[in-house]
Amino acid sequence: MELNEEPVNIVPNEKSKKIHDPRTLKARGGDPNDPDELRRPTDPIGLSRSVLHVLKDHEYVRILSVGPTALNAVMGAFRLASRDIESLTNGSVLVCRQSEYTAEIAGKKAKGICTRIFAIDIKFAL
């Protein structure tokens, strides 16, 4: 077995060091009729599954969205995940909190919505 090592003297620049947080998801806006899959809006059903997957291992999930189409997908995913969490847990409900953040899209600054979703015991939700 041969080892193929990269040179040690290569230092990544600051912009290439993106830290991936497993609790953070991103929702896309876009045109539903676009033939390019990467330019279509986020599917709320798939996003709701991702939300539940993240919540299995973490206390909360954060979804970043820019624009009304992406925010609509996030809220649809929240409603679907809220319905599904009832069958997966014993007395938990999902709660969401939203805040604004500044995103950078294609080099331009844009306002986005950060939606944080977490589960609480139903007795604290009433």
Helix and strand layout, with pairings?
Elements: E1 24-27, H1 44-57, E2 60-65, H2 68-88, E3 92-105, E4 108-121, H3 122-125
Parallel strand pairs: 1-2
Antiparallel strand pairs: 2-4, 3-4
Helix pairs in contact: 1-2
What would you note in describing this structure?
With 126 residues, the protein is α+β, with helices and mostly antiparallel strands. It has a single domain (22-28, 41-125), classed as Alba-like domain (Translation Initiation Factor IF3, 2-Layer Sandwich). It is 31% helix and 30% strand. It contains three helices and four strands, in the order βαβαββα. It has helices spanning 44-57, 68-88, 122-125; strands spanning 24-27, 60-65, 92-105, 108-121. The protein has a four-stranded mixed β-sheet. Strand 1, helix 1 and strand 2 (60-65) form a beta-alpha-beta unit. Helix 1 packs across helix 2. It is globular. The termini are far apart.
